[in-house]
Specification:
By secondary structure, this protein is an alpha+beta fold. It has 10 helices and 11 strands. The strands form 3 sheets. Strands 1-5-6-9-10-11 form a 6-stranded antiparallel β-sheet. It has a 3-stranded antiparallel β-sheet with strand order 2-4-3.
């Protein structure tokens, strides 16, 4: 998940609990990391990737996944529908089209932002980011449809044809390399599933529950400092207290404190834009280049453009880490979202009682 996991707790066999949680996190990484070729997420993104040793072959259509992945994918799609796609596990093509990594690097360096992508590229990335492309096609079988596959296949055949005609050499890519740049104008992005957001909340909950099962009397699990799950109290019987960063202040500035559990809810998620509004750092565009404003480096998956909600940070406490994660992400781009409606749909789909509450929402300073 590209981050650190912190565990604070008391009671039970401390090192035994730590070792068990290390194994749990490693297993989740093997299942859901988009950067491991054999993970189940990577196999869905590219069904022809090599299988994990001992895994069942992908026969009968779609990719066969574990029960945990099957559950997480079903929950991700349900939450995408419930939030009107403000939360979207397939937003990757849009992030790549806007080259968010380069945008962040330029902002930190005080350099001009990279040019905005052409509208045609954004439209293609928006199409490749549709949650409807991910489909459950059988028992624990999932398929990610690619709307641009046929066009890319035709384009990839052109260099081969040119080579046969002697017009230019054919150069194969180096083994082990992967594209890191934003897609070029005129190319069609591929759909890309990424469960990184809700997987952190799921993992925080799972680590907490396993620690309690192994004898912990009180525990706090933090995944990347943005996904928190707790049980019980601290060893001195005081409640767990989590400080929320002030996004308009310094790195160590705390804007508020949440005591957990809160009204019985023991999972907390915070989503935010730590860079702030980009209006003061807009790119110096050459004549004729796209010049759409970028006031946020968070991409709104509904429009394909940088979010313009004016919200810098959202914290949600909920009865479930996955629900908290999806809500904090969705509210960052759409603060008008009805939390109660999403919770009700989640409860109906899961068959379990659920609750959630916004405990922090910070807007950009004008």
């Amino acid at each position: 998940m590209g981050t650190r996991v912190d565990l604070i707790g008391w009671g039970g066999d401390g090192m035994g609990i730590v070792n068990a949680l290390v194994g749990l996190v490693a297993r989740h990484e093997d299942l859901w990391s988009a950067y491991r070729a054999t993970s189940e997420v990577s196999r869905i993104n590219s069904p022809h990737r090599p299988l994990v040793v001992g895994a069942a072959p992908d026969s009968g259509g779609g990719v066969l996944v574990s029960e945990e992945t099957d559950r997480l994918l079903s929950e991700a799609l349900m939450l995408a529908r419930a939030t009107g796609a403000s939360f979207n596990p397939l937003v990757g093509p849009l992030v790549a089209a806007w080259d968010v990594a380069a945008m962040r690097a330029a902002y930190v360096a005080g350099a001009p932002l990279p040019p905005a992508p052409a509208p045609g590229l954004v439209e293609a990335a928006l199409e490749a980011s549709s949650p409807e492309l991910l489909t459950r096609v059988g028992e624990r079988r999932w398929l990610l449809r690619d709307p641009g596959a046929a066009e890319r296949a035709a384009l990839s055949a052109r260099p081969l044809q040119a080579h046969r005609e002697g017009t230019r050499p054919l150069q194969a890519p180096r083994e082990g390399t992967r594209p890191l740049r934003a897609p070029r104008e005129g190319t069609r992005p591929s759909p890309r599933l990424d469960l990184g957001g809700i997987a952190k909340g799921y993992t925080a909950d799972a680590c907490r529950d396993l620690a309690v099962e192994l004898g912990a009397s009180g525990v706090l699990v933090s995944v990347g400092s943005s996904s928190i799950a707790v049980y019980g109290t601290r060893a001195d019987s005081s409640p767990w207290r989590v400080g929320m960063r002030d996004p308009n202040g310094g790195e160590a500035s705390v804007g508020g404190v949440v005591e957990l559990p809160a009204d019985g809810m023991a999972s907390l998620s915070t989503s935010g834009d730590n860079l702030g509004p980009l209006g003061a750092r807009r790119a110096q565009m050459p004549p004729g280049a796209p010049s759409r404003a970028r006031d946020h480096h968070i991409i709104d998956p509904r429009t394909g453009e940088p979010a313009r909600s004016g919200v810098r940070q959202v914290s949600v406490v909920a009865s479930c880490g996955v629900l908290a994660e999806a809500l904090s992400t969705a509210l960052l781009v759409d603060p008008s979202l009805e939390v109660g409606d999403v919770v009700a749909r989640w409860s109906r789909a899961s068959g379990l009682p659920a609750s959630a509450r916004v405990v922090g929402l910070e807007r950009a300073m004008q």
